[in-house]
Design a protein that fits this description.
Structural class: mainly alpha
Helix content: 40-55%
Radius of gyration: 22 Å
Oligomer: single chain
Number of strands: 2
Distance between the termini: 45 Å
Number of helices: 5
Length: 129
């Protein structure tokens, strides 16, 4: 759903509810949109892209990657929504994301590098030098 469609739908729900209220029916609310807002992006589960990332992770780690659906803004939406390039967030492990004490596990960086190289060679292909 586009951001404009979401705003329109939610405003409609608020106004419909207001018409049912004795006070708000005569004093309709004003819906004000402020703060950061962005169009959504969802990489549908089971895509070829996701399968290739999972396969690369399994080759390096020996198990399936964990999965989290983020209610947050990432660069994935730029690639996926606006440029049609499938994308998902995949990275190293650590703690304190974006905090003053943020840290990353160095061993996970090494494995991430191997998994990304494995994914790229499968997804893009390789040619003899």
């Amino acid at each position: 759903m586009t951001l404009a469609d979401f705003r329109e739908e939610l405003t409609g729900v608020v106004m419909a509810a207001a018409r049912q209220d004795p006070f708000l029916a005569d004093n309709p609310p004003e819906v004000i949109w402020n703060g950061f807002q962005a169009d959504d992006y969802v990489l549908e589960p089971g895509s070829e892209f996701e399968a290739a990332v999972r396969a690369a992770h399994r080759r390096v780690h020996g198990n399936d990657p964990g999965e989290t659906i983020l209610p947050a803004v990432t660069d994935c939406r730029f690639y996926g929504r606006y440029w049609g390039i499938p994308s998902l967030c995949y990275g190293a492990t650590g703690s304190g994301s974006h905090a003053f004490d943020e840290s990353v596990d160095l061993e996970s960086i090494k494995k991430l590098t191997l998994a990304l190289a494995s994914f790229i060679s499968d997804w893009c292909g390789v040619r003899a030098a």
